[in-house]
């Protein structure tokens, strides 16, 4: 109750500041609605944090991974689809970056990339046949 009251008071103060700056009016009902939404978001954030911690402990880990997030989002098909898509995009982006780093380090060491090695073998075979 005290937390709810504190949130309501803070939202009221913020609304007053906006009223003065933007020359608009907030009704008591709108301030109460904004306060309630803010409170619920805080509760949801705390619940998700707790759920992530439980999943990590169950898996004997200390790090939240994408599978944990997907597990919590599984009841919302659209959210799960979005999270899966973003996860795949990040994974492919990371793979591309790793490949670029490998090529750069190989070039710096004077080594050939797998494609260059294959081309050299093919060239060698062609010259042996001639």
UniProtKB/TrEMBL annotation:
Coiled coil: none annotated. The keyword Transcription does not apply. GO terms for cellular component: FANCM-MHF complex. GO terms for biological process: DNA repair; replication fork processing; resolution of meiotic recombination intermediates. Keywords: DNA damage, DNA repair, DNA-binding. It comes from the Eukaryota. Pfam families: CENP-S. Residues 89-130 are annotated as: Disordered. GO terms for molecular function: chromatin binding; DNA binding; protein heterodimerization activity. Gene3D superfamilies: Histone, subunit A. InterPro entries: CENP-S/Mhf1, Histone-fold. The keyword Lipoprotein does not apply. Belongs to the TAF9 family. CENP-S/MHF1 subfamily. This is Centromere protein S. The lineage of its organism: Eukaryota, Metazoa, Chordata, Craniata, Vertebrata. The gene is Cenps.
């Amino acid at each position: 109750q005290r937390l709810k009251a504190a949130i309501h008071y803070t939202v009221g103060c913020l609304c007053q500041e906006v009223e003065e700056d933007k020359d608009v009016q907030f009704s008591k009902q709108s301030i109460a609605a904004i306060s309630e939404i803010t409170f619920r978001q805080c509760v949801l954030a705390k619940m998700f944090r707790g759920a992530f911690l439980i999943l990590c402990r169950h898996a004997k880990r200390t790090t939240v991974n994408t599978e944990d997030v997907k597990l919590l989002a599984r009841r919302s098909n659209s959210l799960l689809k979005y999270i899966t898509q973003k996860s795949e995009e990040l994974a492919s982006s990371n793979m591309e970056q790793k490949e670029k780093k490998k090529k750069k380090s190989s070039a710096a060491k004077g080594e050939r990339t797998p494609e260059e090695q294959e081309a050299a073998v093919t060239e060698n075979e062609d010259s042996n046949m001639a």
